[in-house]
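Hello again, I could really use a second opinion on something today. I've dropped the whole record in just underneath, so have a look.
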Amino acid sequence: MLSTLTFRGLTTRLVSLLVVGTSAALSASAFAADAPAGNADAAKAKISMCIGCHGIPGYKASFPEVYPVPMIAGQSEKYIQAALKSYASGARTHPTMDSVATSLSDQDIADLAAYYSSLK
């Protein structure tokens, strides 16, 4: 059997975990609410920096090494946003993508992701 002291300690920890978990959930939903909604039509004025590599079937880049460039048309909106944000933060790196991603606002990223995810 649990002693009263042990039971109180477990209860206190459980309540603390519930408070922290609820706070985290509320923070995440507030953060998501602050994220801009993507506008695929607005992205049409911004895609020129993408189509030179990502719009050519079978294209291979030669800088910094030769590799096939992935097609982004039809990728999920969340994936495109995450990739661009990762390049912008330095968590993911490629010389060309780093400079493109750091030039984009959060709205630009949302718009480009909405545009490319709408293509098939």
